[in-house]
C-alpha cells in the first residue's frame, strides 16, 4: 500500500474523488473502488519510479484501477453465473447489485472503456462525466448512519485514511475505522446507483451533504487551537468549494462555501502569539487570511445571484458583517439584528438565539439583551448547560453593574468551558 506522501505526490484530491466516483458508479461499492485505485497507485509507485510518470497520470491511474476492478467483477460473475464473453461483460460490468440504476445513454459510461486500447495515459479523464456529486449523495444516503456520513465523504471523496480522519475530527481511530467499514458495506448493500435518472434524489440529499460537510468543519473549529490541524483547510474548505462547483445554481451550496471560507480565514487570529484566546471583537483583521476571505465574499455574491438565501447564506452574511465592523470600527448592529431575525425564521437554533440576544443588547442596550436571554431560559431548558449563554450573561450583568450576579454567572461559564485558553481569558476578566 502506498503511504500518504506517495499518494499525495501522485494524485490530487480532485483526481482521487473523480476516479473513485467513476468506478463506484458501476455498483455502489466504494470500498471496492478504493481498493482498485490503491492497486493502481502501488503499481504507479513502482512503474513511475523506474520509467518516470506518464504525460497523463490520472488517465493512467483510472484505466489501471478500472482494469483491477474489472478483474473483481469477472471473478464475481464467474462465481455467480455462467461464463460471459468480454462483450457481454463490458455491457454488464459492475451491474451485479440488484438495485443498479440505468445510465443515461447520452452520457459516457465510465465502465465501458476498452482496457486493451491504446496506452493507459491516453485516456482523457475530463471527457468522462464528473460523478463526484453522486458520490457525495451516496455518502449522505438516509440509510447511512448520520455520524458516519462526514467520515465517508472524507474517505471516499478525498482519500483520507481512517487515521487521518480520526486525528482531524478528534475521534478514536478504531471508531472511525468501524464506522467507515459499516458505512461502505451499507452503500454496497443498498446497490446505490449514481446515474442521471437519480438526479432528483441527489438534489433532495443536498441538505444532508451540506450538513455533513459543515459538521466536519464545526468539530474541527471546536478542537483546533492556533490554526486548523494539518489538512483541515484541504478537507472542509475543499468539500464546500467542490459542492459549490458541482451545484452552481444552488444558493445554499454557495452559502456553505462562503461560511466555511470566512470562518477558516479567521483561524490565525483566534490566538495571540503566546497562545492566548482572542475573541472576535479583539482580533487583528490583518491576521485574517485574505485569500480565503475573498473567496468567501465571492461565494456570498453567488448566493444572491441564485436568488435563494438559506441558513448558511444568512450565517455567512452575519459573519461578513461582523468582520466588516471590526475592520472599519463601525458595526451595523440593526442590520445584524434583521439578519438574525431572518435566521430565526429559516433555521432556529439555541446558538442563534443567544447570538441574537447579544446583538439586541448592542441595539437596545444590555437590559434588553438580558431580558431576551431570560425569556430564552424559560423556554429552553438546555440553556442552563450552554456555555456561550453564560458568557453573554456575565458580560451583560457586568455592563449593568450587577457585580455579584455577574460573578456567579462567570463561575458557571468557567465550569462549562473546556478550552484552557478560553478559560484563562474568562478568568482574566474578573
What do these coordinates show?
Belongs to the sigma-70 factor family. ECF subfamily. InterPro entries: DUF6596, RNA_pol_sigma70_r4_t2, RNA_pol_sigma_r2, RNA_pol_sigma_r3/r4-like, WH-like_DNA-bd_sf. Pfam families: DUF6596 (PF20239), Sigma70_r4_2 (PF08281). The structure is a single chain. With about 425 residues, the protein is mainly alpha-helical. Among the domains are: about 5-95, no CATH class; about 340-430, Serine Threonine Protein Phosphatase 5, Tetratricopeptide repeat (Alpha Horseshoe), CATH 1.25.40. Helices cover about 65% and strands about 0% of the residues. The protein is built from 20 helices and no strands. The chain is elongated and about 75 Å long.
Order of helices and strands: HHHHHHHHHHHHHHHHHHHH
Uncertain spans: 81-121, 226-230
Calculate the terminal CA-CA distance, rounded to whole Å: 55 Å
- The number of strands is 0
Shape: elongated
Report the mean per-residue pLDDT as an integer. 80
Number of helices: 20
Question: Compute the gyration radius: what is it?
Answer: 25 Å
The biggest beta sheet is recorded as: none
The chain-level structural class is mainly alpha
Proportion of residues in β-strands = under 5%
Helix content: 55-70%
Would you kindly provide a brief summary of this structure?
The chain has 430 residues and is mostly helical. Helix content is 66%, strand content 0%.
Q: Could you give the topology of this structure?
A:
Elements: H1 4-10, H2 13-24, H3 30-51, H4 57-80, H5 86-92, H6 132-139, H7 149-156, H8 162-169, H9 173-190, H10 199-223, H11 233-246, H12 251-265, H13 290-306, H14 311-328, H15 333-346, H16 350-364, H17 366-379, H18 387-399, H19 403-416, H20 420-428
Family: Belongs to the sigma-70 factor family. ECF subfamily.
Domain RNA polymerase sigma factor 70 region 4 type: 151-186
Keywords: Sigma factor, Transcription, Transcription regulation
Amino acid at each position: 500500500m502506498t503511504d500518504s506522501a506517495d499518494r499525495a505526490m501522485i494524485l490530487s484530491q480532485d483526481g482521487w474523488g473523480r476516479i473513485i466516483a467513476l468506478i463506484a458508479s458501476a455498483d455502489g461499492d466504494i470500498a471496492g473502488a478504493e481498493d482498485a485505485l490503491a492497486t493502481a497507485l502501488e503499481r504507479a509507485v513502482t512503474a513511475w519510479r523506474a520509467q518516470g510518470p506518464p504525460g497523463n497520470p490520472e488517465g493512467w491511474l483510472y484505466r489501471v484501477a478500472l482494469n483491477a476492478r474489472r478483474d473483481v467483477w469477472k471473478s464475481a460473475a464467474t462465481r455467480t453465473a455462467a461464463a460471459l464473453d468480454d462483450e457481454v461483460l463490458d455491457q454488464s460490468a459492475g451491474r451485479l447489485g440488484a438495485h443498479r440504476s440505468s445510465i443515461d445513454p447520452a452520457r459516457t459510461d465510465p465502465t465501458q472503456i476498452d482496457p486493451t486500447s491504446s496506452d493507459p495515459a491516453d485516456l482523457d479523464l475530463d471527457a468522462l462525466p464528473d460523478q463526484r456529486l453522486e458520490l457525495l449523495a451516496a455518502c449522505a444516503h438516509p440509510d447511512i448512519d448520520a455520524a458516519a456520513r462526514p467520515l465517508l465523504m472524507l474517505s471516499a471523496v478525498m482519500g483520507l485514511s481512517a487515521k487521518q480522519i480520526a486525528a482531524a475530527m478528534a475521534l478514536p481511530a478504531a471508531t472511525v475505522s468501524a464506522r467507515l467499514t459499516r458505512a461502505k458495506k451499507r452503500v454496497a448493500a443498498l446497490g446505490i446507483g449514481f446515474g442521471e435518472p437519480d438526479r432528483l434524489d441527489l438534489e433532495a440529499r443536498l441538505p444532508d451533504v451540506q450538513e455533513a460537510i459543515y459538521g466536519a468543519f464545526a468539530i474541527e473549529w471546536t478542537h483546533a487551537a492556533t490554526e486548523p490541524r494539518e489538512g483541515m483547510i484541504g478537507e472542509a474548505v475543499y468539500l464546500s468549494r467542490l459542492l459549490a462547483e458541482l451545484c452552481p445554481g444552488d444558493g445554499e451550496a454557495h452559502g456553505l462555501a462562503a461560511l466555511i471560507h470566512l470562518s477558516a480565514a479567521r483561524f490565525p487570529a483566534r490566538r495571540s502569539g503566546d497562545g492566548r484566546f482572542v475573541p472576535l471583537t479583539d482580533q487583528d483583521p490583518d491576521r485574517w487570511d485574505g485569500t480565503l476571505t475573498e473567496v468567501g465574499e465571492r461565494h456570498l455574491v453567488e448566493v444572491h445571484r441564485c436568488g435563494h438565501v438559506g441558513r448558511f447564506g444568512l450565517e455567512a452574511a452575519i459573519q461578513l458583517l461582523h468582520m466588516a465592523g471590526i475592520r472599519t470600527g463601525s458595526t451595523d448592529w440593526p442590520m445584524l439584528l434583521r439578519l438574525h431575525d431572518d435566521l430565526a425564521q429559516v433555521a432556529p437554533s439555541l446558538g442563534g438565539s443567544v447570538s441574537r440576544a447579544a446583538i439586541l443588547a448592542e441595539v437596545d442596550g444590555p437590559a434588553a439583551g438580558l431580558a431576551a436571554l431570560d425569556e430564552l431560559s424559560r423556554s429552553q431548558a438546555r440553556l442552563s448547560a450552554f456555555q456561550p449563554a453564560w458568557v453573554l450573561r456575565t458580560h451583560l450583568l457586568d455592563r449593568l453593574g450587577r457585580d455579584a450576579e455577574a460573578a456567579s454567572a462567570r463561575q458557571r461559564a468557567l465550569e462549562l468551558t473546556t478550552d484552557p485558553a478560553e478559560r484563562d481569558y474568562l478568568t482574566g476578566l474578573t
